[in-house]
Specification:
732 residues, alpha+beta, three-stranded antiparallel beta sheet, 13% strand, disordered N terminus, EC 2.3.1.21, mitochondrion, acyltransferase, lipid metabolism, Cho/carn_acyl_trans_2
């Protein structure tokens, strides 16, 4: 009851003498502290906004310019060539504006204009420098004199302490490739997959497209590239993600795992508390723009725009298209546990809750024995099924009353937390443990993650954690950056007591988490069950295998003087050929974040060079020397294609945008309808120097694929390619 009294700022009673108003000093104190914190936050954002706005200059440089101009005036030198006098004549004369005041003000205005012009000049020069990509095509360890000069100039103009968004205005726009280059690269990419007759047919279709309507479509695309910040990204988000009406669970959302071999604590509430607190610290740095921008070579800046919607973001379903709702200053999160939803406040007295306080709140949820309300337990499956039924149900059943208030609490939360009632993680003694862990993160039970939130944090009973991320707002490296910060903060900064609890005192006066209330009618429960069955069908069809390859890793591959990425991609080509006896179009994602608002581009890894190498590996008549020569040729080709994709000269995003323009203009193009599909999805992470993890997925419904079998083929392919560099280890 004491907690309830503290939750309100005042109480009143009606007496014969009037109303007796009693204010709570403690709550008023918290309100005051909240206001102070809010104003401090605004002040810091304003300051960092100014620093970002004038970058690569600094506010202090304005004072230097003003002093310099004033000094020249006192020395009777006019560096403005008469502009100060012209400004002076336009200023009114009054008792408050003396001639001397006019002169000083005119000098300050001129100095400010000169300073702003200098900033724009520096940005233009830096943008021109960042448009140079010759450095990326140079051999590893070899740098030309021109690139060295370029690096020095970029470093000089980049300033000393850039904030997260300091470089945004200086990043170049993504260039539109020429039609000829894109078509030639496309034809080159499909050549190893077609026989001579099929290739001639494709060549004919491509040449017809090149004559008409390609020039017309290209003109419109060029116009968009001049007008928009990025000619791809907005259409990519809208047409690839938001307009898709199929379930986003499995098909779009992706997951991120915990550290494989480390569990800092086995206490679920404690691990959840530290992780949530670390995320709030990261969010504070993000909102203030205080994170250090990612830079290639430690110098070349990457675009940071995707970070903006990491927190306080939800994908809202629509009938024809969804939209991404992003808010600011959200002060709560929503927790799902055993079919119940709880709202947890993240602030107390104007500050973040400490880990020990969050642990108390989460433990209260774990100890809560209340039962789910009708329809509540599987409610999140609406976000796992088809988009249209969810959009219609949202409009019909969640637009008023307690349902609207509860749904609003979820959609406006900082993020979503699931306190899972299962135990997962990697167990070296259980070969299936990694597979089950990944599948749980990817889809769970199909009703215990809110797939529309920017991300759902999942904490298991044994203290293992993971994240399920909605894909439309950002790509995996963005959430990966946050995840690295959170794991490092959890293990090395926050820590735990000897008993596994969070460090710090426990504040038992905190008001407990609030149960969200629902009034879900039977008709809506039928829709929920329908969404669940669709989602369950998708989840049950996921054939997943996690392969930990620890025979060798990045360090040994580099000693072979080849790129680890190229090495792995060629191993995948060899493994796939052994698995299915044929080649297929292979798509590897690369980033285009050296351009403003850049996201991804596709590298087509199946090339004439890679297929020649694979065939040689399967031909007993070829020698090790011949295979090694073909490997190096294929690896060099792959690296060149990856670099082209990174520098805006890829194939698929250009073709995608041409296709969108053709649809808007109602132009039918046989060339733009060409589509290919393959049977496996493979992601891999190079962990440290001696471990590579492969995450392989396919469908049980496909008779041609088997993820475990493909994993074994990948392992053998890696070993066989390694043997080329040391024939004594050869296993053929």
């Amino acid at each position: 009851m004491a907690e309830a009294h503290q939750a309100v700022a005042f109480q009143f009673t009606v007496t014969p003498d009037g109303i007796d108003l009693q204010l709570s000093r403690e709550v008023l104190k918290h309100i005051y502290l909240s206001g102070v914190t809010s104003w401090k936050k605004r002040a810091i954002r304003f300051k960092n906004g100014v620093l970002t706005g004038v970058y690569p200059a600094s506010p202090s440089s304005w004072l230097i310019v003003v002093i310099a101009i004033m000094s020249t005036m006192y020395a009777r030198i006019d560096p403005s060539m008469g502009m100060i006098d012209r400004i002076k004549t336009s200023l009114p004369v009054s008792e408050f504006m003396t001639v001397q005041t006019q002169t000083v003000l005119s000098a300050i205005l001129f100095a400010t204009g000169l300073w702003l012009s200098f900033i724009f000049l520096l940005r233009y020069i830096l943008k021109a420098l960042l448009s140079y990509h010759g450095w990326i095509f140079e051999s590893h360890g070899k740098m030309s004199f021109s690139t060295k000069v370029w690096l020095v100039l970029v470093k000089l103009l980049s300033g000393r302490r850039p904030l997260l968004y300091s470089f945004q205005a200086s990043l170049p726009h993504l260039p539109v490739p020429s039609i000829d280059d894109t078509i030639n690269r496309y034809l080159e990419s499909v050549r190893p997959l077609l026989d001579d007759e099929q290739y001639k047919q494709m060549e004919s279709v491509a040449n017809d497209f090149k004559k008409d309507p390609a020039p017309k479509l290209q003109k419109h695309l060029k116009l968009k590239s001049w007008w928009a910040t990025n000619y791809v990204s907005d259409w990519w988000e809208e047409y690839i993600y938001l307009r898709g009406r199929d379930p986003i669970m499995v098909n779009s959302n992706f997951y991120t795992m915990d550290l494989l071999y480390v569990i800092p604590t086995h206490r679920q509430a404690s691990r959840a508390a530290n992780i949530v607190h670390a995320m709030l610290q990261y969010r504070r740095k993000l909102e203030r723009g205080e994170l250090t921008p990612l830079r290639a070579l430690g110098i070349v800046p990457m675009c940071s725009f995707q970070y903006e919607r990491m927190f306080n973001t939800t994908r809202i379903p629509g009938i024809e298209t969804d939209f991404v709702q992003h808010l600011k200053d959200r002060k709560h999160l929503v927790v799902y546990h055993r079919g119940r939803f709880f709202k947890v406040w993240l602030y107390y007295g104007g500050r973040h809750l400490w880990p020990s306080e969050l642990e108390l709140q989460f433990q209260r949820i774990l100890d809560d024995k209340s039962e789910p309300q009708p329809g509540e337990i599987k409610l999140p499956s609406l976000t796992a099924g088809n988009r249209v039924p969810w959009a219609r149900a949202r409009l019909k059943y969640f637009n008023e009353g307690v349902n609207r208030a509860s749904l609003e609490a979820i959609e406006t939360a900082a993020f979503f937390l699931t306190l899972d009632d299962e135990t997962h993680g990697y167990d070296p003694e259980n070969i299936r443990s990694l597979d089950l862990y990944a599948k749980s993160l990817l889809h769970g039970k199909c009703y215990d993650r809110w797939f529309d939130k920017s991300f759902t944090l999942i904490v298991y009973k044994n203290g293992k954690i993971g994240v399920n991320t909605e894909h439309s707002w950002a790509d995996s490296p963005i959430i990966g950056h946050m995840w690295e910060y959170v794991l490092a903060t959890d293990c090395f900064h926050l820590g735990y007591t000897a008993e596994g609890h969070c460090k710090g005192d426990i504040n038992k006066s905190l008001a407990p988490p609030t149960r969200l209330q629902w009034d879900i009618p039977k008709a809506c429960q039928v829709i929920i069950e329908g969404s669940y069955m669709i989602a369950k069908g998708i989840a049950d069809d996921v054939d997943f295998h996690g392969c930990l390859f620890n025979e060798f890793g990045k360090s040994l591959i580099k000693k072979c003087r080849t790129s680890p990425d190229a090495f792995i991609q060629l191993a995948l080509q060899l493994a796939h050929y052994r698995d299915k006896g044929e080649f297929c179009l292979t798509y590897e994602s690369s980033m285009t974040r050296m351009f403003r608002e850049g996201r991804t581009e596709t590298v087509r890894s199946c090339t004439c060079e890679s297929t020649a190498f694979v065939k040689a590996m399967e031909d007993e008549r070829t020698t090790v020397r011949q295979r090694l020569a073909l490997f190096k040729k294929a690896a060099d080709k792959h690296q060149n294609m990856y670099r082209l994709a990174m520098t805006g000269a890829g194939i698929d995003r250009h073709l995608f945008c041409l296709y969108i323009v053709s649809k808007v203009m109602d132009i039918d193009s046989p060339f733009l309808k060409q589509v290919a599909d393959d049977g496996y999805g493979v992601s891999y992470i190079i962990v440290g120097e001696d471990l590579i993890t492969f995450h392989i997925s396919s469908k049980f419904s496909s008779p041609e694929t088997d993820s475990f079998r493909f994993g074994q083929n990948i392992r053998q392919a890696m070993l066989d390619i390694r043997a080329l560099f040391n024939p004594k280890e050869k296993k053929m």
